């Protein structure tokens, strides 16, 4: 059978986790927490399951969770939205991204993405009959040149996908970036898909500048968020998408045939968590900043060049002073010979990238971070 995605193979995350398991290595590659979800959340899930809340939820989401998401947006971003009409609960952020892309992209449309880019964007665009236009960003600052973006806009351009805080670079878009983005959207009648799954994990008191803060920009946008990232429960695959009512309506037409509805007792448990423990969201940034700082301090004596991490739970290391191997080869050597699994950045680019940079995940217990740093400092 002819493949619809001939260039797609096993993801780098699966490959590196498989290597880590095979070599009993410390896994700082795949982005998932080593610690568990909050006790209250787990207890609520068990309670709702035992109480019989185990059948289909409404396709857009349980009303109480939609309302708590709207309340969170009002508290964090000073934006009042219609919970029922604008919040759609999904089976993880990846489903939300896929459905948003299917809602927008038509045959022949072009979608601008920034490399290094999360690996689900391109396949979803291609399945919808579109084409991704890649704009590469490079170490150490991964700064967007908005004139380059403007030069790439054509009559076929339909949307721009942004990701902030950005995986894998750990950078955040600034006010000037949003000003330039908004100008392009208005000038060329474009849409935005804003991947904001790490929205609550920002460092050094930098605020997350969400699309949700700008009412005019939101009218042309799908904003994607992740309960899994926020509540340390990536295995639940729970996320949501916020969009203006007319876009949300189109989103839900496709969502109902992809997943129909998401895990009912988990939705109820998440609603309780947002309502009764709002401090969890507020404490995410300092919680992860402490882990970032611990790993940075432990690596300061190494030969790696540490790149600044402004958000997410990732840290980039430049290994130019250590090896001339490609980043893929270096990561394989790292796990096989030194017992630490990392992610090479070049796999997130359409065209080969010569930066010698790898990504570490610091959503791990302190003992894991220290043990990994000790191994890396020996190189």
TrEMBL record:
Keywords: Aminotransferase, Pyridoxal phosphate, Transferase
GO CC field: cytoplasm
Record GO terms (molecular function): kynurenine-oxoglutarate transaminase activity; pyridoxal phosphate binding
InterPro entries (alphabetical): Aminotransferase_I/II_large (IPR004839), Kynurenine-oxoglutarate_AT (IPR051326), PyrdxlP-dep_Trfase (IPR015424), PyrdxlP-dep_Trfase_major (IPR015421), PyrdxlP-dep_Trfase_small (IPR015422)
Protein's UniProt keywords contain Aminoacyl-tRNA synthetase: no
Any coiled-coil regions, as ranges: none
Reported cofactor(s): pyridoxal 5'-phosphate
Stretches assigned to the Aminotransferase class I/classII large domain: 25-375
Superkingdom, taxonomy of origin: Bacteria
Family: Belongs to the class-I pyridoxal-phosphate-dependent aminotransferase family.
Protein's UniProt name: Aminotransferase
Originating organism: Pseudoalteromonas luteoviolacea DSM 6061
Lineage, highest ranks first: Bacteria, Pseudomonadati, Pseudomonadota, Gammaproteobacteria, Alteromonadales
């Amino acid at each position: 059978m002819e493949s619809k995605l001939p260039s797609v193979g096993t993801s780098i995350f699966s490959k590196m986790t498989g290597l880590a398991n095979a070599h009993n290595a410390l896994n700082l590659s795949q982005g998932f927490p080593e610690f568990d979800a909050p006790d209250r959340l787990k207890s609520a899930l068990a309670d709702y399951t035992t109480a019989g809340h185990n059948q289909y939820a409404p396709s857009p989401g349980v009303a109480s969770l939609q309302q708590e998401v709207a309340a969170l947006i009002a508290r964090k971003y000073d934006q009042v939205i219609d919970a029922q009409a604008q919040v759609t609960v999904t089976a993880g952020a990846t489903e939300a991204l896929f459905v948003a892309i299917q809602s927008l992209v038509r045959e022949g449309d072009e979608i601008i993405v920034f490399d290094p880019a999360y690996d689900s964007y391109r396949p979803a665009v291609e399945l919808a009959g579109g084409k991704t236009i890649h704009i590469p960003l490079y170490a150490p600052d991964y700064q967007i040149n908005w004139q380059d973006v403007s030069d790439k806009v054509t009559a076929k351009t339909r949307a721009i996908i942004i990701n902030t805080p950005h995986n894998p670079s750990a950078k955040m878009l600034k006010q000037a970036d949003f000003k330039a983005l908004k100008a392009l959207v208005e000038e060329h009648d474009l849409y935005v898909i804003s991947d904001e799954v790490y929205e609550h994990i920002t460092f050094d008191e930098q605020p997350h500048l969400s699309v949700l803060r700008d009412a005019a920009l939101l009218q042309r946008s799908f904003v994607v968020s992740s309960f899994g990232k926020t509540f340390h429960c990536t295995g639940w695959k729970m996320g949501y998408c916020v969009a203006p009512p007319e876009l949300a309506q189109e989103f839900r037409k496709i969502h109902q045939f992809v997943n129909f509805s998401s895990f009912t007792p988990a939705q109820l448990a998440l609603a309780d968590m947002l309502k009764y423990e709002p401090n969890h969201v507020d404490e995410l940034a300092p919680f992860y900043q402490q882990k970032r700082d611990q790993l940075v301090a432990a690596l300061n004596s190494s030969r790696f060049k540490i790149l600044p991490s402004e958000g997410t739970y990732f840290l980039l290391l430049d290994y130019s002073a250590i090896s001339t191997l490609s980043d893929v080869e270096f990561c394989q050597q790292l796990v096989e010979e030194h017992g630490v699994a990392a992610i090479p950045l070049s796999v997130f680019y359409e065209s080969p990238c010569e930066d010698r940079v790898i990504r570490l995940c610091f959503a791990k217990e302190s003992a894991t971070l220290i043990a990994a740093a000790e191994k890396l400092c020996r190189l």
